[in-house]
Structure formats: C-alpha cells, structure tokens
C-alpha cells in the first residue's frame, strides 16, 4: 500500500509544478523509462561486438611498425598503384 501512497504524493507534486517545468519533467520521465527498459538485445550486441574484436592485434606476426615503408613499397606499384599480388614479406 505504501507504493500507492508514494504514487499519490508524486501525482500531487506534479500537479503543483508550474507549466514551464512540465516539459523538463516529461523529458526526465522519458529518460527514466529508457533507463529502466530491458536491455537484452543491446547487451547481446555489445557482447557480439566485443567477441568480434577480441582477436584484433593478435595476428601472430612480429611487430611490423618499423618496416611499414618497406611493406608499402612492396604493395604499391609506382605506376599502377596498389597491386593485387600477395606479399609474404613480414
């Protein structure tokens, strides 16, 4: 029964608010509704995203950052641009 008393008190408080405060209250109530909505799909998407990127950076190849110019030189043809040949340089 205490829940009913609290709801009644809230309704009385809202009724006593000036008109200009009602838009802000409506916005806040929308936020509370959003915040309390079930998030099973959002959590599932977040988990899938994290699983998808979990292996990034773990290619098993040594650090090639020091050789980036050499690697690009082998990948880019000076006349035709990017080549389609595969390179085993690492």
From TrEMBL:
This is DUF2281 domain-containing protein. It comes from Petrachloros mirabilis ULC683.
